[in-house]
Structures are given as structure tokens and as C-alpha cells.
């Protein structure tokens, strides 16, 4: 008879598979429940389902005995200032270039659609809960395990595919930001975004804190600026986002190298420094 201890040993041996399976089980379990409950419960189910990467990472770390090093990444703030700037300015710069491009190709910006200060704070909190808190899983658990098998660029590509697939239920659920949009276009945007996050993670000795800041900033700026872009012009803003992201990602690969995307590729969850 298979014992609990035996299951834990197997799960610890296959941490990556365990993590991915748990992530999809938790998230898709809650997101799938949307079709079974009243619309009033949809927002709560989607919010809780979005914690799947975090919950799965915590469980996997507990099974493998890695809770302390895994959790230490979440508060790793002592990194060079330039990487704090990277976490904020790269998302802001990409969206800024998209805005400039949209105007240049015949679109427009309606300043009256920009939210007030109170709404911006609310958007920031919401995007942290519905985006930033994914990072303890994607970067804090999956990325170092993938980099143990592949170089940093390939690991980013694999993680980008997993990350995109994880969002799949949102594309078939009414009322979500992804409903009715192109899964292919979304996935092609997630891939370069994943490369940029790998650069940040590897160059900060595994700071998931900064990855959370990057992810939150990216989602929040889009939530603030996106509604103000009026008229598609000759080129869709979504296409511009895709182009700018790929230019940024290819530039990062050229600067930091295909193999590690930094001076060092993290192939294990980094241990806390004493």
C-alpha cells in the first residue's frame, strides 16, 4: 500500500510536475466552478483561483522541505537599485511606447478616461492580488526548476507556454478581460514577458519580491492607460504591445546571453544568505 510518506517522497523527487499539477488543479477547479454557481460568486471564484500558483508553490515547498528558501525569495529586497528601477520602468516604458505608437498610427488618447487617484490605488491593489501573487509560483518555484533542465531562454519559453495555458478558462468565461480576445496573440505576448521576468529573477539572485513588483506594475499600468487609448488607428494597440515586448525581450537576450540571461542561471531555489 502506498503510504503518505511514499507519496511525499515521489512528489519531492518530481517537484516541477507536482507544482504544475497542483497549480492547474487548484486554479481550474475554482475557475471551472464559475459555470456551476450564480454570477455573484464569479468574482470570488476567479480571485481565489488566481492564487493557484501561490498555493501550489507553498504546498510543493512544504513537501520538498524547501519552505524557508522558497519563502525567503518573497522578501528579498537587498538588490542593486537598477533592478528596482527595471521592475518599474520596463513595464512603464513598454506601455509608454505603445501609447506613442498608437498616436503615431492614428489612434488617440482620451485623458478624461484616465482614473482618479483613488481608482489608481484600487487598481494597484487588485492587480497585486490578481497578478503579482502569481509570482511566488511561476518565478519562485517553476523557473528555477525549469532552469535546472534547460537554459534560461528555453526555460522561459516553456514557462510562457504553461503560463498561457493556465489562463485558458478565462478565454471562455464571460466577463473576464480575456473573454473574446485571441489566445494566440495573448500567448505570443506572454513569451517575451516571461523572458523579461527571467532576466529580473536571475539578476537579483531570485528576488520574487521584484518579480511581483514587475507583474503588478505591468498589469496596473495597462489597467490605467489601456481604457484611455481611443481608436485603433492603422495598427491595433495589442499588436503594438506584442512588437514592443519582443523587441525588449530580444534586446535583453542579446545583452545578457541566451544561456543564463544574467551572470548566473539559478537552477535551484536560492538559499537565504546568512
UniProtKB/TrEMBL annotation:
The keyword Magnesium does not apply. Its EC number is 3.4.-.-. Residues 119-221 form the CAAX prenyl protease 2/Lysostaphin resistance protein A-like domain. Keywords: Hydrolase, Membrane, Transmembrane, Transmembrane helix. One of its GO terms (molecular function) is endopeptidase activity. The chain crosses the membrane at residues 16-37, 43-63, 83-105, 111-129, 150-171, 183-201, 208-229, 235-258. It comes from the Archaea. One of its GO terms (biological process) is CAAX-box protein maturation. It holds the Pfam family Rce1-like. This is CPBP family intramembrane glutamic endopeptidase.
Amino acid at each position: 500500500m502506498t503510504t503518505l510518506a511514499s507519496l511525499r517522497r515521489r512528489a519531492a523527487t518530481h517537484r516541477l510536475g507536482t507544482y504544475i499539477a497542483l497549480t492547474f488543479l487548484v486554479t481550474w477547479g475554482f475557475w471551472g466552478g464559475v459555470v456551476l454557481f450564480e454570477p455573484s460568486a464569479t468574482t470570488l471564484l476567479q480571485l481565489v483561483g488566481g492564487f493557484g500558483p501561490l498555493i501550489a508553490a507553498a504546498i510543493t515547498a512544504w513537501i520538498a522541505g524547501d519552505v524557508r528558501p522558497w519563502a525567503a525569495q518573497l522578501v528579498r529586497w537587498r538588490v542593486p537599485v537598477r533592478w528596482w528601477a527595471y521592475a518599474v520602468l520596463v513595464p512603464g516604458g513598454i506601455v509608454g511606447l505603445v501609447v506613442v505608437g498608437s498616436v503615431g498610427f492614428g489612434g488617440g488618447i482620451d485623458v478624461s478616461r484616465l482614473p482618479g487617484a483613488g481608482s489608481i490605488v484600487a487598481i494597484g491593489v487588485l492587480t497585486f492580488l490578481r497578478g503579482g501573487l502569481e509570482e511566488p509560483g511561476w518565478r519562485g518555484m517553476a523557473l528555477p526548476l525549469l532552469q535546472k533542465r534547460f537554459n534560461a531562454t528555453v526555460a522561459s519559453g516553456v514557462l510562457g507556454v504553461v503560463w498561457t495555458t493556465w489562463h485558458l478558462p478565462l478565454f471562455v468565461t464571460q466577463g473576464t478581460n480575456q473573454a473574446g480576445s485571441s489566445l494566440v496573440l495573448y500567448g505570443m505576448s506572454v513569451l517575451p514577458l516571461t523572458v523579461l521576468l527571467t532576466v529580473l529573477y536571475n539578476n537579483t539572485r531570485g528576488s520574487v519580491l521584484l518579480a511581483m513588483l514587475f507583474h503588478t506594475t505591468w498589469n496596473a499600468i495597462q489597467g490605467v492607460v489601456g481604457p484611455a487609448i481611443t481608436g485603433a488607428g492603422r495598427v491595433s494597440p495589442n499588436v503594438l504591445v506584442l512588437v514592443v515586448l519582443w523587441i525588449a525581450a530580444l534586446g535583453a537576450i542579446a545583452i545578457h546571453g541566451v544561456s543564463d540571461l544574467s551572470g548566473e542561471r539559478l537552477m535551484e531555489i536560492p538559499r537565504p544568505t546568512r
